[in-house]
Design brief:
- The complex is a heterodimer of chains A (352) and B (274).
- Chain A is α+β, with helices and mostly antiparallel strands and 352 residues long.
- Chain A contains nine helices and 20 strands.
- Chain A has helices at residues 42-50, 92-102, 107-120, 136-149, 166-183, 194-200, 218-223, 228-233, 325-328, and strands spanning 4-13, 16-26, 31-35, 57-62, 65-66, 77-80, 154-158, 186-191, 203-208, 211-216, 237-247, 250-255, 258-262, 273-279, 283-286, 294-303, 307-314, 317-324, 336-341, 347-350.
- In chain A, the strands form four sheets. Chain A has a six-stranded mixed sheet with strand order 6-7-8-3-9-10, with helices on both faces. In chain A, strands 13-12-11-14-20 form a five-stranded antiparallel sheet. In chain A, strands 15-19-16-17-18 form a five-stranded antiparallel sheet.
- By secondary structure, chain B is mostly helical.
- Chain B has one domain (56-273): MetI-like fold (Orthogonal Bundle), CATH 1.10.3720.
- Helices cover 77% and strands 0% of the residues of chain B.
- Chain B is built from eleven helices and no strands.
- Chain B has helices at 13-37, 53-60, 62-94, 98-113, 116-130, 136-161, 165-172, 177-206, 208-214, 222-232, 237-267.
- The longest helix of chain B has 33 residues, at 62-94.
- The two termini of chain B are 16 Å apart.
- Classes of the chains: A alpha+beta (352), B mainly alpha (274).
- At the A-B interface, strand 6, helix 2 and helix 4 of A face helix 7, helix 8 and helix 11 of B.
- Bound molecules: adenosine-5'-triphosphate and magnesium ion.
- Residues 13, 18, 36, 38-44, 192 of chain A line the site of adenosine-5'-triphosphate (ATP).
């Protein structure tokens, strides 16, 4: 159990630069999510931490130990692979026990420990099953137990839930988090699902084309994205192009027929063209015009379960706003509504 | 491992007739030989009269049995060598660059394409040049050259398509490369090695032309002996040995198929199917 320190990691495959000067730290016992779209280098970074791939530059520290020159088999790192990577001809017991057998632990201690970890991950009664006869969720638990039983210094998980369906996925998110906190192990968790990252992590590292876009707590990264990219990746924001203005003692971003109040942000001057990012659920909807509201027409109403999405037309710009289900009944397609945004949680970004 | 789907559509009548004709042409000679080995008439004349005298004769003449024994252990030796070399070559090649990954298997395919007769003559020339001529060593290496590509290609294609993550998982758990090979890689490729071995065994047993050219004088493998005997005059005890071999090999293939199938299922990535 120790903290992870990544310093200036760079990696290229041929001429393609996959990781570009990545540095970050994970505090002892924390879970950090590596979040990013497909192909942004998450797996590569994880494999470098695990030692399965070598970085061109930079170093990996776990606790005080510099792992950069240490080969995989001596790193003592628990890894759960994207496709579980269970050993197909071994039973659940043998898969979980494998790391201990390698360490030449006595058979009776192995048996006791395997039992302990089997109940930790909730696989009681499956000890002697072949791993190929397990469901995806069960295989995932075996992989987790197998990684944890060697009492690794840190735990690395590569999209462990991507193959599972929604329901088991939510269950496993909770389970992994519970086990991680119970064991108190420093963890790096790779995912491309923003919701998963937001629910599970202490911290989120958002990656973009092999660079760090933002590193912050889930709440902070959601409420205060540093870039348009971050704001778009975490909860799909509407992007409007407008001009930043200062009038009536306040800052506004205005476009063709609309104007929303915003907070002053450093580094911007009045008259500048900016991107305004508005999250659908942060919009206040009313049927009467209010201060600083903008009128728009409902083009379509999409029912998605707990919330409804209103596809609206804001003077020629398409936007999506959300409201909870019961409120949606008040609206019809074609109706004009007035929307207003909260300046404190609305951000704008440079266009260049 | 090929598996026919349960819900696969049946054959239509034309296909059934075609299939029967094909199977008849393929299997009739074998059945004819089996029947003839139990027939009293020396020349396969009808009516069929049951007898075991050819079997009695077979077990009294030492030649056929000893040649069979020789062929058996020799083929086991060669196919085992081919299997070991096949695994070693596949393992090494897997780590090499993509260029070699493509070039080497193509190179290995050459002995498959070249007729055995040509190979045999070429090998004899080579061995004469090396000064070992017709000897056990040249017989062994000659047959090995002929069967090795089969064993290699089967093992190699399995290793290349195999999921590499279990091995990486083994490494993260602290296993050395030797342990990973023994605990993870070998069991995973085992079905392929087994079928490669079987293939080599059958090929080596049958590669008459190579044996004929390279076997030392006085050594007779079964195909060589049968050839010699037929030239001297046909005797139905050859049918008897053919029958025994056919049955033994059929049983072996049946067992292998069963094992191969089960092992294949165990090793295959069939998460979803139960
Ligand atoms: N062994 C390799 N050789 C060449 N290129 C590679 C190799 N491994 C990865 N890449 C490239 O590096 C980039 C990053 O790959 P990586 O697997 O890290 O992405 P990822 O973020 O994990 O994506 P995903 O979410 O799809 O798993 C990709 O463009 C990929 O094509
Ligand atoms: Mg990946």
């Amino acid at each position: 159990m120790s903290e992870i320190k990544i310093q200036n990691i760079s990696k290229s495959f041929g001429s393609a630069c996959v990781l570009n000067d990545i540095s970050f730290e994970v505090k002892n016992g924390h879970l950090l999510s590596l979040l990013g779209p497909s192909g942004c280098g998450k797996t590569t970074l994880l494999r470098i931490i695990a030692g399965l791939e070598y970085a061109d530059e930079g170093s990996v520290f776990v606790g005080e130990r510099d792992l950069t020159p240490v080969p995989v088999e001596k790193r003592n790192i628990g890894v759960v692979f994207q496709n579980y990577a269970l050993i197909p001809h071994m039973t659940v017991f043998n898969n979980i026990a494998y790391g201990l057998k390698i360490r030449k632990v006595k058979p009776d201690i192995i048996r006791k420990k395997v039992q302990e970890y089997i109940s930790l991950v909730g696989l009681e009664g499956m000890t002697d099953r072949k791993v190929t006869q397990l469901s995806g969720g069960q295989q995932q638990r075996v992989a987790l137990a197998r990684a944890l039983i060697i009492e690794p210094d840190i735990l690395l998980l590569d999209e462990p839930l991507s193959a599972l369906d929604r329901k088991i996925r939510a269950e496993m998110q909770y389970e992994i988090r519970r086990i991680q906190q119970q064991v108190g192990i420093t963890t790096v968790f790779v995912t491309h699902d923003q919701e998963e990252a937001l629910t599970m992590s202490d911290e989120i590292l958002l990656m973009h084309n092999g660079r760090i876009e933002q590193l912050s707590t889930p709440k902070d990264i959601y409420n205060h994205p540093v870039s348009l990219y971050a704001s778009d990746f975490l909860g799909k924001a509407n992007t409007l192009v407008g001009i930043l203005e200062f009038r009536d003692n306040g800052w506004f971003v205005s476009g063709d027929g609309w104007s929303f109040q915003v907070c002053p942000q450093e580094g911007f001057t009045a008259g500048e063209q900016v991107y305004l990012a508005i999250r659908g659920e942060q919009v206040a909807i009313s049927s009467e015009p209010t201060d600083n509201s903008a009128a728009c027409t409902i083009k379509n109403i999409i029912f998605t379960g707990e919330i409804c999405r209103l596809m609206v037309d804001l003077q020629g710009t398409a936007m999506t706003v959300s409201c909870i289900n019961v409120l949606a009944d008040c609206f019809q397609i074609g109706q004009t509504i007035h929307i207003r945004v909260d300046p404190n949680i609305t951000h704008y970004f440079k266009t260049s | 491992m090929k598996k026919r789907k349960k819900g696969a559509r049946g054959f239509n009548s034309v296909m059934i007739v075609w299939l029967c004709a094909t199977l008849f042409i393929l299997l009739f000679p074998i059945f004819a030989i089996i029947l003839m080995s139990f027939n009293t008439s020396k020349y396969g004349a009808l009516p069929f009269e049951f007898t075991l005298k050819w079997y009695k004769q077979l077990f009294q003449s030492a030649d056929l049995l000893s040649a069979t024994g020789y062929s058996l252990w020799f083929s086991i030796l060669v196919s085992t060598s081919a299997a070991v070399l096949g695994i070693m070559a596949s393992m090494a090649l897997r780590r090499m660059s993509r260029k070699w990954n493509k070039a080497f298997p193509t190179l290995m395919n050459v002995p498959v394409i070249i007729p055995w007769l040509v190979q045999a003559v070429a090998l004899l020339l080579l061995f004469n040049l090396l000064g070992i001529g017709k000897s056990f060593a040249s017989l062994y290496f000659g047959c090995l050259v002929a069967v090795m590509p089969h064993s290699f290609l089967i093992t190699y294609s399995r290793i290349m398509t195999m999921d590499k993550y279990p091995e990486e998982a083994g490494r993260t758990l602290g296993a050395t490369s030797m342990r990973i090979f023994l605990d993870i890689t070998l069991p995973m490729v085992f079905p392929a090695v087994l079928s490669g071995w079987l293939m080599s065994f059958v090929l080596c047993f049958n590669c008459f032309s190579i044996q004929y050219y390279l076997a030392p004088f006085g050594t007779y493998t079964l195909p060589m002996l049968i050839y010699t005997m037929i030239r001297a005059g046909y005797n139905p005890d050859i049918n008897a040995i053919a029958t025994i071999l056919t049955i033994v090999i059929a049983i072996v293939i049946f067992i292998m198929n069963k094992i191969g199938f089960d092992v294949g299922q165990l090793v295959g990535q069939g998460h979803k199917e139960k």
